[in-house]
Amino acid sequence: MSSWCDGEFLGFDTETTGVDVASDRIVSAALVHRAGPSTRVRTWLIDPGVPIPTAASEVNGLTTRQVRAEGVRSAMALEEIATAIAAAQHAGVPLVAYNATFDLALLDHELDRHRLPRLTQRVGGPLAVIDPLVLDRGLDTEREGPRTLGDLCGHYGVQTRADLHAADVDVLATLEVLTGIAAAFPGIGELTVAELQPWQARQYRRWAEGCNARRLADEHARPPVDPSWPLPVALAAAG
């Protein structure tokens, strides 16, 4: 029986002006279609229409001057990205994204900002998503320490050809991490992509509830994490 591990994937990542999904903007994005040995990479450099904070530039290497001179208009890029993702979903190709809730929520807010249809509206229902971060947390529950993309690359022996925090580099690394997870935990390949969706949602909720319990005990902690996956409940309901 064939496994989803052997199928096609569409990897997705963004670089942004910050980490607030409701107010920050996408400044670069990448979609990587992988089918067996074939890999096709498409990238966007985007002028978000607002200045890029220095702290964000230090992470992603992009400046306000650069995106204004070389970037495409936000609405154009967002439409192209959303159209490509929806086409892949209709073709049965799952979307692979590390920490998918961030990128998908940010993309939906950006689409709303430009009065463009959300992904779920384009697809006509829930998205088929595979999130290596959620898989890793759910399958390797005893491992301690951080689980950034760089950490997972080190853990699963993924060699990157450039520094992380460029959207295309991050997507390629994410796809390799997914391959490493599938090899380390072959049982996960016995689930179908459809079965993976509620499994990942349960793992994410378990992690979020634990995270929120720890934050509740810390009076200086950040706001609670929405336990819904792959989209916050408000966005999923409105879609």
UniProtKB/TrEMBL annotation:
Any Pfam family matching the protein: RNase_T
Domain of life: Bacteria
Gene3D superfamilies: Ribonuclease H-like superfamily/Ribonuclease H
Limits of the Exonuclease domain: 8-187
InterPro entries: Ribonucl_H (IPR013520), RNaseH-like_sf (IPR012337), RNaseH_sf (IPR036397)
Molecular functions per Gene Ontology: exonuclease activity
Keywords (A to Z) from UniProt: Exonuclease, Hydrolase, Nuclease
PANTHER family recorded: DNA POLYMERASE III SUBUNIT EPSILON (PTHR30231), PROTEIN NEN2 (PTHR30231:SF4)
Protein name: Exonuclease domain-containing protein
Species of provenance: Georgenia deserti
Lineage: Bacteria, Bacillati, Actinomycetota, Actinomycetes, Micrococcales
